[in-house]
């Protein structure tokens, strides 16, 4: 009963937070901030933490949106986008570390699959203009993808030489490329085109967030 009341309270807080910032942020940024915060509900955060985490997620979502706009305007290379994206992830995680308790943050860090799947879904939502109905199916696919390549990811990040990393990276790239087909049933024809135009960036999101430690 208490848990039910807590969920209702947090849901109300999400609505309140969204309405407070509706004029200042785009709807996509709002949706991303709320979605990321909801996906962290397993941390059993206090209402104050929820608000602070929401703000951190909102800033990260806005940074991703700005990165997308700047990339288009400046015709940035994929490598530059990936580097900028990694910086956004690290800054967000630094903020979360200041907000969460040590136990909560450790749990957040250990939950690599959900973390990587969530952030990839958010970036896809922004760049592909996903509808609300598409969010959950896309997240489920992303989560399944990360689960399937987790072994390759662990090998990649534990490799202590370039040869080991390169071998793991090739296997990882092959597995992720094969997994792209799963989105064909969810995305519209135009979204599929946009996805494949940015496929390398979307694939790198998984490894960047999965491997982010702080």
From TrEMBL:
Annotated keywords: Signal
Species this chain originates from: Chryseobacterium turcicum
Organismal lineage: Bacteria, Pseudomonadati, Bacteroidota, Flavobacteriia, Flavobacteriales
Signal peptide, first to last residue: 1-24
Protein name: DUF4142 domain-containing protein
